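General statements about sequence and structure are easier to judge against a single worked case. For one protein, we set the task of working out the structure tokens from the amino acid sequence alone. This step matters because it turns folding into a mapping between discrete strings. The amino acid sequence and the backbone structure tokens for this protein are reproduced below.
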Amino acid sequence: MEELEQPWRPTLPLCDKAIDLKAANKILSSAQTREKCLKIFQYASRLVAYVLLRGSLKDLGKHFEALSKNLSTARRFFKLFRFMKHFEDLADAKEEKDPTFQKLLYLDVAANVVADISEDWTSLEKVGFLRKGTLHPRTEYYANWCQLVLAVVEIIVTKIKADRAMEKASKPDASKEVLRKRTMAQLEFSKFLADLVKAFWDCELSFASELAFILSGLWAALVSTHKYAIRVLK
């Protein structure tokens, strides 16, 4: 008897896992993946608002702009106490044999912790734990500078990791898994470049572009959602 053909099912890029109902529920049950999905909707809404506010549909543009802000606030609930997970990275830093890169990894952990705590601090007022006006008016601005410094550190760290992955993938006998890790490392590097462009706008630098901010945020959201979805399905 001829074998029945299996129905086609979409698969997650750089992963052999099919996206069926069970996989979709597993992805959405992860707080990190759900938060990143909200980030996609946030910046997609902001992009729609950017276009509409410059056309004749300004009322609709204001709706999408408000939706983007609400989604941003919703994401803050998921990100509270996120700084704690970075302490797990200390083990990888300790095992690093290159002393220079090891110091960079420790710096990366420190930058992540400071940036996340500063964001949590602003979230206390944003989500209503603190009354409006409790924090200094420029608290979020200073927190954004922490994010800019973090983006620079992450770019340096992920560039080194991407170069290492490229070197392993350049070998003739490189496996599919090694090639995938190279692509993932390159995507991660591009994500932090996008974070830097986004930070320029958040830090109110004169050369920053709102459209570049929106597109960078959307790209970073797509890359992050993909990364965490793969982690969940492994």
